[in-house]
Amino acid sequence: MLARLANQRPLFRRADAPALFAGAFLAVPILAAIIPGILFGGGEAWTHIANTLLGTYALTSIGTLFLTGLLILLIAVPAAWLVTMYDFPGRGLFEWILILPLAAPGYVFAYAYADIMGVAGPLQSLLRDVSGLTARDYWFPDIRSLPGLATVLALTLYPYVYLTARAGFISGSICTQEAARSLGASPTRTFWSVALPTARPAIIAGLALALMEAAADYGAAEFLGVPTLTFGIVRAWGSFGDPAVAARLALVLLTLILTLTWIERFSRGHRGSQQSSSKWRPLARIRLTGLSALTPALFCAAIALIGFVLPVGRLIWLSMEASEHVAPVMGAFRNTLILASGGAALAFILAVIVALTIRNASLSSRFARLATASGYAIPGAVLALGGLFILKTLGLSLTGFAALFILIWVYAARFASAGTEPLQAALARAPVSIDHAARSLGAGPLKRAIKVDLPIAMSGAAAGALILFVEVLKELPATLMLRPMNWDTLSVKAYAYASDERLAAAALPSLLITLAGLGPVLLLSWRLSRARVSDRA
Amino acid sequence: MTQFSALTTTNVSRSYDGTQIVSGVDLTLVPGTVTALLGKSGAGKSTLLRLLAGLEPVDSGEIKIGETVLSSPRKTTPPETRKIGLIFQDFALFPHLNAAQNIMFGLAHLPPPERKTRAAEWLARLDLSARAKAYPHELSGGEQQRIAIARALAPSPAAILMDEPFSGLDPSLRATVRTTALDTIREAGVPALLVTHDADEALSGADNIAIMDKGKILQQGPAQDIYLHPVSAKAASALGPINCLPVASLPADLLNGISGTGDSLVLRPEGITLTPNAPTSATITAIHFHGPHKRIMLDLNGTQLVCVSDHSTETTIGSQMGIALNPRAAFIFGSDDI
C-alpha cells in the first residue's frame, strides 16, 4: 500500500504549491485559535470557569443541540416527504417556500420572535383583547429559554434537512420506492420501510450541518439569555479580557462539534455512497383531494407561516414604523458591503485554488481541502479568537485597521469551503476523461488548470461568490469581536440595538440581512428546478 | 506524409492492491492500421489503454514508440508530452469551448492563424464546417464523435487510442459513424487502438485484433486469420458463439478434413451445414427466425448444437436432418485450451 502511495501520490510537486499555500493560509487562524487554548488557557480564570460555569455551558449546549435536532427532524422530514410524494393544493409553492428560512440567521429570528411573543407583542395583545385577561392571569410560552432558543434555531436551520431529505427521497430510492408501491405497500409503509432507511444518510448529513450551525450560534443564544458554550466563549473573552481562557473553552466546543461529525460518519457506516440514478425522473405523485389534501397543505402552510411569513412580516412592519433609524443603518450598510466584498473576494480566490485541486490526489491538495473543511466546522467566535492571537503576536492594535484585514482573513478561513462547493460541483459534473483528453493534447498542469478546469469551475462561480458574500454578511460573533471601533456592520448594528431592547430599531438591519440572504436561496431553488429540466430533456 | 512508428508494449504488467490487471502483455500496433483490443469487461482492456496513454505507470515491462521508451518501471512520460491522441466513450469534449475551439485546443504550438486554418480543414474534412461555432451540448452524438476525432487527430499525434468510442452512439448511427471515423484514422497513417467488447465491431471495423482475457493477450493478428485460425476455444469464443463437443462422441465421417489434435471439437454455428442426405443426422429441437438466416437448435446423440442456415433448406421441429461440418469453421483443441 505504501509503495502504491509513493507511486501515485508524491509528497510534493511544483503544481501543488498553490494548494499548499492556500491550505496554510486557511489553517493559520484555525491553529491560532486552537493552540493557545491548549498551551496558555490555564490559570485562575480557567479554574474559576471550570468550577462554576463549564458544566452549565456544556449541558446547555448539548440540551439545545438535542432539542434543536429533534425539532428539525419533526419539521423537515415530514415536509420533505409530503412535497415529494403527494400532490395537494399549493404543493409547488410550498416546495420552494420551505427553503426560504435559510436566508435568515438565527439571531434575526430571535429578535423577530422576541417581539412577536413578548408581553407587548401582537400575540399576547390579541390574547388579552379577546379574553379580557391581564398579563398576570395566564401562562404564555417564554421565548427567552432553552426551548425558545431551540425553536428559533430549528426554524432557521430545518431547510438543511428539508433539502437533503427531499434529495434523498427523490434520487436515493426512486426505484425501490416504485418497487415497494408496485408490491402493494401503502405510502405510509413505503415511507417507514423503504424511503426513510434509504434517505437516512442524507438526512443525517443535513442534520449534522444544521447542528454545526446551531453550535456556532452566538447572537440568538446571547439575546435569549441561554448560556451555551459559544455564548460562554464570547463572554469569557469579554469579562476576563483573556482570549486564552476563551480559547480553552473553545476546545470544549470543538470537541462537541467533532463528536457530531464523528456521529455523522459513524451513522453512514458502509453505506458511504448512496446509490442514486443519475437521471431524475418525475415520481408519480399521489394526488390528494378534499379533506385528505387538507392535512399536508395545513402542515406545510403552518411551517411556511411560522418559519418565514410571520417573522419576516413582523420585521417589515417594525422597519416601516421605525423609519428614523434609517440614517445610522446606512453607514453600517456601507461598512457591510466593504467587509463582505473583501471577505468574499479573498475566500473566493482561495476557494478557486482549492477547488482546482479536486482531481489532484497529492497530499498538499488533501491538506488544503482539510483546512478548508475544518474552517467551516469551527464557529466564528472561535476563529475570531485565533484572529485576536494573530493581532497580539504581531503586536498590532485591536482598534486599528489591521484588525479589519485580520477579520477578512478569519472570514476567508471560516467560509472558503462554502465557496468551494459550487465550484467543485461544477468540476465534478465534467467527466474525468476531459482531463485525460487535455493531457493527451499536450496540456501541462498549469494549462489544464487555466484553460480547462477554471472555465468549467466558473459555471459555479456566481453561486459560490454570492453564497460567500451572504455568509460573511450574516456573520455576527467574529465581526463583533474583531471589527475596529465604530466600524459597525448590519449584523453588529442589529445586535447592538437588540441588546438595548430596541427591537424596532433592530428590525431594519435584520430585514436587510434577510433580504440579502434571499438571493442565494432563490438561486439555489432555481438551480434545483433547472437541474431537473435539463435532466428530463 | 510523415513516416510513423509502431507503438509496442513488451511484457507490460500492472496490478492494483495485489491483483494483476494486466500481465505480461506484448502488443504491436502497426502504423496505418486499426487494432481492436477485444475482451469482456474486466479483462484489463481499459487499463492497458491507460498504460499506453501514460495515465498510469507500468509495474514492469516497456512501452515504446519506434525506439523511444515511453513507459518503464523507472520512468513514465506524462500524457501531455507523449503525443498520443485519445478518444473516449463520452467524447469528453470541453463543454465551455465550441467545436472549432475544441479542435484548436491541441494546436497551441502553432501561430493563431494557422490554428484556425487547421481547425477549418478538419471541420471540412469531417463535414462539420457548418457546426464550427456550435457548443458540445448543441451537437448530435455523431457530430460530437467526429469533433472528438478531429480534436485528437489535428495535432498530428504519433498514435490514436479509442476507448469504446462508438458504444455511446445510437445503434442506427453506429455503423456509418464507425466507417467514417476509422477510415479517417487509417488515412492519418498512425497506429490506432480500438478498445471494444463487441466482436462484430472488432471484426468489421479493425484490421488486426488482439483478444484479451484476464489481463493476458490470448491471440493477436489480422482479423480474418484470428477468426479462421483461433489458437484456443477461448479465443474462438471471443469472436462469436461456438459449439463445443467431445471428439470421442462423434462419428469419424463428420471429422473429415478438420485439422488439429485433441479431444474437443469447437464449431462455429456456420460450421454446421444442413445436408439432407448426409450419413450423420441430428434432431431439430427449435428454430429461431432471424431475418436473413435462421438459427437452428439440434440434438446430436444428446449433445445440443446451434447452427445457422439460410432459408433454402426446409426445416421442421422434431424432424431428423443430415449434417456435415465445414472444416474452415471447425477446430479441434486439447481440453486444456477450453
Description:
The complex is a heterodimer of chains A (537) and B (338). Chain A has helices at residues 2-8, 17-40, 43-52, 54-85, 91-97, 106-117, 122-131, 146-172, 174-182, 187-216, 219-224, 229-240, 243-268, 291-321, 326-356, 363-377, 380-394, 402-429, 432-440, 445-457, 461-474, 477-482, 490-499, 503-536, and strands spanning 86-87, 286-287. With 537 residues, chain A is mainly α. Chain A folds into two domains: 14-36 and 322-499, Orthogonal Bundle (MetI-like fold); 53-320, Orthogonal Bundle (MetI-like fold), CATH 1.10.3720.10. In chain A, helix 2 packs across helix 17 (380-394) and helix 6 crosses helix 8 (146-172). Residues 1-7, 270-282 and 532-537 of chain A have low confidence and may be disordered. The model of chain B has no long low-confidence stretch (mean pLDDT 89). Chain B has helices at residues 45-53, 79-82, 99-104, 112-125, 141-153, 171-188, 199-205, 223-228, 233-238, and strands at residues 7-16, 19-29, 34-38, 60-65, 68-72, 75-76, 84-87, 159-163, 192-196, 208-213, 216-222, 243-246, 264-267, 272-274, 281-290, 293-300, 303-309, 320-325, 330-333. The chains are: A mainly alpha (537), B alpha+beta (338). At the A-B interface, helix 19 and helix 20 of A face helix 2, strand 7 and helix 5 of B.
